[in-house]
Design brief:
The two termini are 14 Å apart. The protein is mainly alpha-helical. It has one domain (21-90). It has 3 helices and no strands. It is elongated, with a radius of gyration of 18 Å.
Length: 100
């Protein structure tokens, strides 16, 4: 990503940190939660009163959500445009030095 102004810097930083701090841990949490829900209820529908039923209707749905969050995080951080995590620091430093 090319950072041209302060708004670009804000959006790029917020999105990258959001992936690292929110989406990646959420994916791990949802995979763990799906394991617990599967151990208690199997792959059938979750009871209406269970906390996991607010996320998805079954343990399989929670598992898909967790795997999707992990895959999106890994793709963005390590594969998209050479890995945004690897180029984050150099992009920010280049912006503060005044571009190319």
């Amino acid at each position: 990503m090319e950072i041209n102004n302060w708004f670009d810097l804000f959006i790029y930083t917020l999105f990258t940190l959001g992936i690292v701090v929110l989406v990646l841990p959420a994916g791990i949490y949802y995979i763990r939660l799906s394991y617990i829900a599967f151990a208690r209820y199997g792959f059938g529908k979750l009871p209406k009163g269970s906390p996991a039923s607010g996320i998805a209707g079954s343990a399989l749905g929670i598992l898909f959500l967790g795997v999707f969050a992990i895959l999106v995080s890994l793709w963005y951080l390590f594969l998209d445009k050479g890995g945004n995590l690897f180029y984050f620091y150099s992009e920010v430093v280049e912006f503060f030095q005044g571009g190319t």
